[in-house]
């Protein structure tokens, strides 16, 4: 954070200009009451600003505070304590919810009014120096008062940014955890399919050749699908795109296995035709999805 001296140096606010402002105090002070009244009349005509002046006791109290601030423009001393007072003024505006826009409007109004006083009551040869000093002290005030608004905005943005980042990180970790759960589930199911395959093969050794071969073939299809799902999930964890065609493949393999089982149990023709129709429809869907994903890739 810059010191007040650094701010003064950046504005090139010199000791000569400080003395010029002090010399303007006797010129401005008699006009202070009228300036403050005009200042409040301006805001009473703006509905969004007037609501802050509805309290019967607030205008009188604020008029005194604003008169002190106005005269301090010309009194000095322009040091760190002056800087701190201005920052407290800004923070007070922030605390009661006054828009920074009205701070700019108010200072713009006072700049015009004070310039008119300078033009009317200061000697012509001194007016240029007086107006320059006046502009610098008003700009410096606006800078320091506005700092409270900038700090508040940064706090809100920083809090929102940190919260957003925290939620995103939490979501990513939770999603990664779910992917691990899916991966472990697929591994467990694959082990179960291996156990079923072993059972089907054992049927062959028991002499149930036809049943064992057909069942083993259906189980191998499921095992092949499990391998594809496992590989797809591993790639997904590593950042690859989601493959929708695998889910169509699951349904397709399930129908094919149903046909194989039905051939052993001599299921009625209508049921077998229904299974065949399902395979045809899912086959078309699988082809369309695979083609679409290939184009996308």
Brief summary:
With 297 residues, the protein is an all-alpha fold. It has helices spanning 4-11, 15-28, 32-44, 47-50, 58-75, 80-96, 100-121, 124-205, 209-237, 245-265, 269-296.
Written overview of the protein:
The chain has 297 residues and is mainly α. The protein has 2 domains: 159 residues, Globins (Globin-like); 91 residues. The protein has 11 helices and no strands. The longest helix has 82 residues. It is rod-shaped. The model has no long low-confidence stretch (mean pLDDT 77).
Tags for this model:
Globin-like, 2 domains, rod-shaped
Strands, helices and their partners?
Blueprint: H1 4-11, H2 15-28, H3 32-44, H4 47-50, H5 58-75, H6 80-96, H7 100-121, H8 124-205, H9 209-237, H10 245-265, H11 269-296
Helix pairs in contact: 2-5, 2-8, 3-5, 3-7, 6-8, 7-8, 8-9, 9-10, 10-11
Can you tell me the CATH class of the largest domain?
Mainly Alpha
Task: Give me the count of strands.
Answer: 0
Provide the succession of SSEs.
HHHHHHHHHHH
Structurally, the number of domains stands at 2
Helical content class: over 70%
Write down the overall geometry.
rod-shaped
The CATH architecture designation of the largest domain is: Orthogonal Bundle
How many helix segments? 11
- First-to-last CA distance: 51 Å
Mean pLDDT: 77
Q: Which fold does the CATH topology of the largest domain refer to? A: Globin-like
Instruction: Say which CATH homologous superfamily of the largest domain is assigned.
Output: Globins
The radius of gyration is: 41 Å
Largest sheet descriptor: none
Low-confidence stretches at least 5 residues in length (pLDDT < 50)?
A: none
Find the structural class using helix and strand composition: mainly alpha
Approximately how much beta-strand content do the residues carry?
A: under 5%
């Amino acid at each position: 954070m810059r010191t007040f001296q650094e701010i003064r140096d950046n504005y090139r606010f010199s000791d000569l200009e400080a003395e010029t402002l002090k010399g303007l105090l006797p010129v401005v002070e008699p006009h202070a009451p009228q300036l403050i009244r005009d200042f409040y009349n301006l805001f009473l005509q703006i509905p969004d600003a007037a609501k802050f002046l509805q309290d019967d006791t607030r205008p009188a109290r604020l008029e005194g505070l604003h008169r002190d601030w106005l005269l301090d423009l010309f009194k000095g001393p322009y040091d760190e304590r002056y800087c701190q007072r201005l920052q407290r003024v800004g923070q007070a505006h922030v605390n009661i919810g006054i828009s920074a826009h009205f701070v700019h409007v108010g200072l713009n109004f006072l700049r015009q009014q004070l310039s008119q006083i300078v033009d009317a009551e200061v000697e012509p040869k001194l007016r240029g120096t007086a107006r320059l000093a006046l502009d610098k002290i008003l700009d410096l005030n606006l800078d320091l008062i506005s700092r409270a608004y900038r700090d508040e905005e940064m706090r809100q943005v920083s809090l929102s940014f940190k919260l957003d980042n925290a939620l995103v990180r939490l979501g990513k970790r939770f999603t990664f955890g779910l992917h691990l759960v899916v991966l472990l589930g697929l591994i467990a199911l694959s082990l179960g399919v291996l156990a079923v395959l072993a059972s089907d093969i054992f049927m062959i050794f028991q002499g149930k050749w036809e049943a064992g071969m057909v069942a083993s073939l259906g189980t191998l299809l499921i095992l092949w699908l499990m391998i594809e799902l496992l590989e797809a999930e591993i790639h997904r964890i590593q950042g690859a795109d989601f493959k929708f065609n695998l889910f169509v493949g699951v349904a397709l393999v399930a129908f094919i296995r149903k046909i194989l089982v039905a051939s052993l149990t001599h299921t009625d023709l209508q049921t077998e035709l229904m299974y065949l129709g399902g395979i045809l429809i899912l086959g078309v869907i699988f082809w369309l999805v695979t083609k679409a994903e290939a184009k996308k890739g």
